[in-house]
Amino acid sequence: MTARERREWLAGVGFTSLWIVGFGAFLLYPVLASLFYSFCDYSILEPPVFIGVDNYTKLLSDDVFWLSLRNTLIYAVFSVPLGTVVSLGLALLLNADIKGRAVFRTIFYLPSIVPLVASSMLWLWIFNGQYGLLNWVLRPVADLFGATPPAWLGDPAWSKPALVIMSLWGVGNSMIIYLAGLQDVPKHLYESASIDGATAWQRFWHITLPMISPVVYFNVIMGLIGALQVFTQVFVIAGGVGGNANPLEGSPSRSTLFYTIYLFSTAFFDLRMGYASALAWVLFVVVALLTALGTRASRGHIHYLGQP
Amino acid sequence: MTACLAPSGSRIAARFVLYACLGFGALLFSFPLVWMLGTSLSPIEQTVSYPPRLLPVAHYATIDGRRLEVTMDLEVRRRSAFVENLSGLRVGTRSVIPVESYRSEDPSIQLLKWVEPGWWQVTERSSASKFSEKDLRRDVLPPERIETRVELRWENYPKALASMGGRSLEEIEGFVEPGKGAGSQNVGFAAFVVNTLVVCVLGVLGTVLSNSLVAYGFARLKWRGRDVFFALTLATMMIPYPVLMVPLFGMYERLGWIGTLLPLWVPTFFGNAFNIFLMRQFFLTIPTDLSEAARLDGCSEWRIFWRIVLPLCKPVLAVAALFHFLHAWNDFLGPLLYLTRKDTFTLGLALQDYQSVHGGVQWHFLMAASAVTVVPIIVLFLFTQKTIVRGIATTGSKG
User: Fold this and answer.
1) Closest chain B residue to A281 measured between Cα atoms?
2) Is the ipTM above a cut-off of 0.95?
3) Rounded to a whole number, what is the distance in Å from the CA of B107 to chain A's nearest CA?
């Protein structure tokens, strides 16, 4: 290393030194430690004891693990595609030639910055079976069919749909990203398509969608990763349903016992930190696989602007 | 474009549909928050009235020659008698009894008036220092003698915050003297605000300082190992927080940080992969001529960073600062994991804690307390809208 190289190296390491420490202490160490704990019996009160793959084999026969995985996947399978449709739909509306775009954009975006604890309180109230706003709207409609509207968060069959509806209220973030993507689509493509007599649907399907496919891909993957880790709203709502339910039991009837809720309760209430680490690593692998799978599936379908 | 070629009739129809969709969407997206505010300003009995009211109201009537605020208890469906009980357990109280069961010769009751169907039974609205129901005046009145007008109960806010801070409801409503209520830990609402601001402000400071330094090292300096380390940094963005949760908790436990605010802001001073990436992308767009010239003049790297590059990067610093502020304000899992005593709680955790203790009935207080955590964020957003929207758009299109 020459004197100059050494100087440059020192400057580079100097500027990134905080991150070198941060990376080691807050990422590398926890990731490796968690991998190690996942092969241990560990309660945090005593040093970890190595037990091989026991935690992972136990997972396979753990009904609650499968239930929480199932609950989480059901939620993700509905909230991600519906969220995509809603946020892309709103972005398309905002991208049209309209007056008052800034006002509409603000209205659609605002709910997504409402703190999750507060919005959970709000939706607990709106979904209230007896006095809630939603059922007040639905009751006359249900009456026509001689039915009664569901108790939503209080009903095991309706608690997940309710959480999905709540998630749609907060799609503002991906809507903004879609809107930015839509505004990047070159106008001349639409002009030539119009001259060729393409309908609005054809223009959307053959121009808009291919052009914004990288943005769709980004949003869907981020949405999926987020949906698999959904925690706060489920914790608050499960704890708020019917008075003082234990938030970690997934009330009602374990229908909202989601993956991260089970992980949290295993780690910090049962103090089975080793088992919880195994749960965390399974989540990690699932997230990584989904990301990789998404990348592969979208290869060839995604059109990156300015790239061959 | 097509609009010019299309016949004007269908064009108008298309625009109508467009604005109808926008209007309906705006209604769906804004109504929940309007509903939150409406409930937060309602008296408790109107939160459980049917049909629900958007605008809270107050009813006034004159009972025994005094004009009072009243609650509308129930509508009398049949012709009845309104009587005063002269003896027995309910002496001094007034009640509505059906005409058939009214006996004029009964000495224990005295007829006050006849009641027509459609009249309302009203009760003086209980306010502070009313200890027993007997003190409340009752009457049955035709609807036109009850005046109704919109009245927002701003007093719900101080009450909700006092209740959230740990004061007992009896004390807040004035049923018992201050200090005599069955209060739990009264830490005061202000503590939650201070804690939240500490975490937010120190976190923003840490985020801006550490990430700009690190991003400069990645974007503007050439050194061996840089590209490998940067690739590694990007790869860590995908790691789910639950993977880090257990070892981090153990680490903070050994440091004695559990139960303090430290785990919520100290790590921000050591960089964050997302922000490093965000800032690096921006630093790359700044022309290098200036810093090259400064370097030839013998300027140190630190001075180039601090005096030349950083002032040009204010837009991205603002984005990172705002993102972190929003994140820290909204964070729930972190405080839930690391905070143990109520006097260290942040707003979000305090709100959840309040709900778990008082939830289910006090919807007006719960909505008021929720609104208090929401409104500052909305105000902040309205003032910084451009920066935030631009920031989100960048992360999406370049991610």
Assistant:
1) B243
2) no
3) 43
